[in-house]
């Protein structure tokens, strides 16, 4: 590769149970691989993950294209989710994201940024089975618009963000939003080391 471009590759083998569920020992580990190619301000990334949360293996293939400058980040991502042996119809997820930041002098905070995201997915299953042994719909198709801002402390090895977001959900006609999946204001603190 030239001095203007870099290639990053990662792969892994891991337990696909949630980080808080320490009682689960997986007999079918999950595998993941990711490659990223950067040339100038443009990044292109491809990834693959396979996991078997129950008895059906689910494969994820994703692609990301991003562009960044000193203050802008613009990114688009697509994910294809395939269930083996036609256990459930394939699912699709997509997102577009933009962020712009500027310097500020607000106490310990020195950066203010504004973000916008449009994302969505088609009907999909988490991989859980019903009493007949079939995968079932766990999340209805939906789209979501997120707008917000972040104030950050980025002056040392420890960085902190306080994020304020408004999320607006869009479901198909006649579909009730699940618990936690309706319009909301989200405030979060993120620490990075």
- Uncertain regions spanning at least 5 consecutive residues: none
Q: Give the H and E element order.
A: EEEEEEEEEE
Report how far the terminal alpha carbons are from each other: 30 Å
Percent helix among the residues?
under 10%
Textual characterization of the structure:
This protein is mainly β and 193 residues long. 0% of the residues lie in helices and 60% in strands. It has no helices and ten strands. Strands 1-2-3-4-5-6-7-8-9-10 form a ten-stranded antiparallel beta sheet, with no helix packed on it. A hairpin with a 2-residue loop joins strand 2 and strand 3. It is globular and about 60 Å long. The two termini are 30 Å apart. The mean pLDDT is 87.
Labels describing this entry:
193 residues, mainly beta, ten-stranded antiparallel beta sheet
Put the structure in a nutshell.
The chain is an all-beta fold.
């Amino acid at each position: 590769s030239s001095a203007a471009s870099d290639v990053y590759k990662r792969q892994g083998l891991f337990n696909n149970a949630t980080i808080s569920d320490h009682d689960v020992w997986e007999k079918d580990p999950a595998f993941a691989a990711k490659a990223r190619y950067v040339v100038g301000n443009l990044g292109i990334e491809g990834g693959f993950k396979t996991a078997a949360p129950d008895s059906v293996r689910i494969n994820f293939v994703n692609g990301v294209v991003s562009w960044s400058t000193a203050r802008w980040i613009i990114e688009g991502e697509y994910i294809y989710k395939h269930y083996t042996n036609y256990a459930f119809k394939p699912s699709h997820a997509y997102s577009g994201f933009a962020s712009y930041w500027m310097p500020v002098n607000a106490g310990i905070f020195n950066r203010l940024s504004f973000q916008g995201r449009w994302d969505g997915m088609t009907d999909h299953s988490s991989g859980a089975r019903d009493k007949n042994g079939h995968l079932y719909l766990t999340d209805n198709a939906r789209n979501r618009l997120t707008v917000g801002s972040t104030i950050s402390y980025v002056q040392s090895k420890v960085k902190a963000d306080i994020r304020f977001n408004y999320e607006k959900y869009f479901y198909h006609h006649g579909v009730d939003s699940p618990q936690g999946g309706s319009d909301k204001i989200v405030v979060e603190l993120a620490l990075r080391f």
